[in-house]
Design goal:
The structure holds two protein chains of two kinds.
Chain A (H helix, E strand, L loop, with lengths): L1 H12 L2 H15 L4 H40 L2 E5 L1 H14 L4 H19 L1 H4 L3 E3 L2 H19 L9 H21 L1 H7 L6 E2 L4 H14 L21 H20 L13 H41 L4 E4 L11 H22 L4 E5 L1 H46 L7 E2 L3 H4 L1 H12 L2 H20 L12
Parallel strand pairs in A: 1-5, 1-6, 2-4, 3-4
Chain B lengths: L1 E7 L5 H15 L4 E7 H7 L5 E5 L13 E5 L5 H13 L1
Parallel strand pairs in B: 1-2, 1-3, 3-4
Classes of the chains: A mainly alpha, B alpha/beta.
């Protein structure tokens, strides 16, 4: 009997797509959907997850030979700072220690903890609920990977239940506290649209918002400036990914030279081979996104339905790009200046002969610095929207390079998130944990929970009025 | 049955939000619909096969060759009121 139970845990609840599919199925049943609709939800989640794995496997397979040649030749390793490269590293690595499904548990614990914190908002002062499904999955994966690697990584065993619980609670605390922190600024940026940011740079956007007023003038709005027209091709993510990867990875491939790679010389010039290899990043990212889109759509519908039943007044924490409509020029501005910042930082790494080389990724360049620019512009105009993303670009590269010195090793590792909070808060947490152990993530939970209390003290009377229906 | 496509930069977060909102709005308007979501890059090539395409205002110009599909640009993706007004106007055309 016990054996049957254990093998059920292993072969069912221990398999990420089955687990997530079941969560969706149960969620839909609880929401009163028909059995066949719930079944369809299960299937879409399962298939979506499998498509996602085709994408992540392809990314590692495409990038790994290039990293290997680079480190054999020059003793340096290259990593891409892009959330999907971070996610790929996390899930492909966790799969090698039979722990991929635990990402699902971390996400569920974190989401449940977020709900609990909102339910007890009278005491916790948390008003926001994280419903950005793809980010929730991604961050749970990356945080679990980073914490596991610096705490338990040496043994090569599966992640321990205790660590899963700690990471889940810490993740939920971060979602709750940081999306709650940025609520007032988001209201300001969006003219009171009634949502907050639930993404990768909530702390960053708050810093940008606070600093911007001191370095610029908000009257000089960036939306009165025209950005160069060619930037509009970046609106197409397929084009943007292929272009940026060709620029960076293509350069590395040319430096390594044609003799490093095995390719069919009757079929390709070296240049066309480089182009095709780099275009494959766009191919696998598109596959990966298709998979994530499919399973996250189901998961989010199920999560959102459940949370609406439980908490009607919570402010939804959503994707950062939702703010872009309110400040359409700012993201391009952030992209340009963040790009300069990242370039300078990358060349500095090369000059310093750093063992870790960073490759810029499109999502981090555009969405992260774009969001910082939106918040910076609202409080400090175009000057702030230029300076802050520039500095953020430096931070994204240096912070990620530092944390990768601790995380590199396994061959599945091809990158890190790079986004502002991950190059600062989480890079710092990972490095500290590497030295001091599991006490760091445990202590961080109560420390973070102090933040909403401080916010509440500042404006007690209006604090809860941002919540709907209250 | 109205075929609707919601699109945003990566086709992950914002377009999913539009999708959930438009489903609710069209249901309230008493219209049957089938809503998909995608990235702008993918949506551009696919827009012709839909009746209605919803995107953030800044992406509207990307959809110049969308055939008969009606393009609706939104400022606040979470505002059911804005979506309803703009969709009603677009469908009346």
């Amino acid at each position: 009997m016990l054996e049957l139970f254990l093998s059920f845990i292993n072969k069912f609840l221990g398999q990420a797509p089955l687990l997530l599919g079941t969560v969706v199925f149960i969620g839909y049943m609880l929401l009163g959907k028909k059995w066949y609709e719930s079944l369809a939800g299960f299937i879409k989640t399962f298939v979506g997850f499998k498509i996602l794995q085709v994408g992540t496997g392809g990314l590692v397979g495409t990038f790994r030979p290039i990293i290997t040649s680079l480190s054999e030749r020059y003793g340096i390793e290259a990593f891409v700072i892009d959330p999907y490269f971070g996610q790929t590293s996390a899930t492909e690595f966790l799969d090698t220690v039979d722990s991929l499904a635990f990402v699902g548990y971390v996400m569920l614990i974190a989401f449940a903890f977020n709900i609990v914190l909102v339910l007890f908002r009278k005491y916790t002062k948390i008003r926001t609920l994280f419903i950005t499904g793809h980010i929730m999955y991604q961050q749970s994966a990356v945080l679990l990977w980073a914490m596991y690697w610096v705490i338990e990584g040496v043994g090569g065993k599966s992640v321990s239940p205790f660590l899963i619980a700690v990471v889940g609670l810490l993740m939920g605390t971060y979602w709750s506290v940081m999306s709650n922190l940025i609520i007032e600024a988001t209201q300001e940026v969006t003219d009171g649209a009634g949502f907050t940011i639930g993404h990768q740079q909530m702390f960053g956007a708050w810093v940008a918002w606070k600093v911007a007023g001191k370095i610029g003038n908000k009257e000089h709005d960036v939306n009165k400036v025209n950005t160069p027209g060619f930037l509009s091709i970046l609106n197409d993510n397929v084009v943007a990914n292929a272009l940026i990867m060709t620029v960076f990875v293509g350069t590395i491939m040319f430096i390594l030279g044609p003799e490093t790679f095995e390719y069919n010389k009757t079929k390709y010039f070296f240049a066309t081979y480089v182009w095709e290899t780099c275009a494959y990043f766009a191919v696998y990212i598109t596959i990966l996104l298709t998979g994530v889109r499919m399973f996250v759509a189901e998961l989010t519908a199920s999560f959102q339905g459940i949370s609406e039943k439980l908490l009607s007044g919570a402010v939804p924490a959503v994707d950062c790009a939702v703010t872009f409509g309110f400040s359409p020029q700012a993201p391009s501005y952030g992209f340009i200046f963040g790009f300069f910042g990242q370039m300078i930082a990358i060349f500095t790494l090369i000059l310093l002969e750093s063992p870790v080389l960073i490759i810029a990724g499109f999502i981090c360049l555009f969405f992260d610095n774009g969001t910082l620019a939106v918040f910076a512009n609202k409080a400090g105009g175009r000057r702030a929207a230029a300076i802050i993303p520039f500095v953020a670009g430096l931070i994204q590269v240096f912070g990620s390079a530092l944390v990768l010195t601790a995380l590199r090793g396994p061959e599945e590792v091809i990158g890190w998130m790079g986004m502002f909070d991950w190059a600062t808060l989480w890079a710092g947490t990972t490095l500290l944990t590497n030295v001091a152990g599991i006490i760091v993530p445990i202590l961080l939970i109560p420390l973070l929970l102090i933040i909403p209390q401080l916010q509440y003290r500042r404006h007690k009377e209006t604090y809860f009025t941002t919540m709907r229906d209250e | 049955m109205l075929k609707v496509l919601a699109a945003c930069g990566n086709g992950m977060g914002s377009s999913l939000i539009i999708k959930m909102k438009i489903q609710k709005v069209l249901k309230d308007m008493g219209l049957e619909c089938d809503v998909h979501h995608a990235s702008v890059g993918q949506a551009k090539s696919d827009a012709r096969n839909f009746d209605l395409v919803l995107v953030s205002e800044m992406f509207v110009k990307e959809f110049a060759n969308a055939g008969n599909a009606k393009i609706v640009g939104l400022i606040n993706l979470l505002s059911e009121e804005e979506i309803r007004t703009k969709v009603e106007a677009a469908l009346a055309k």
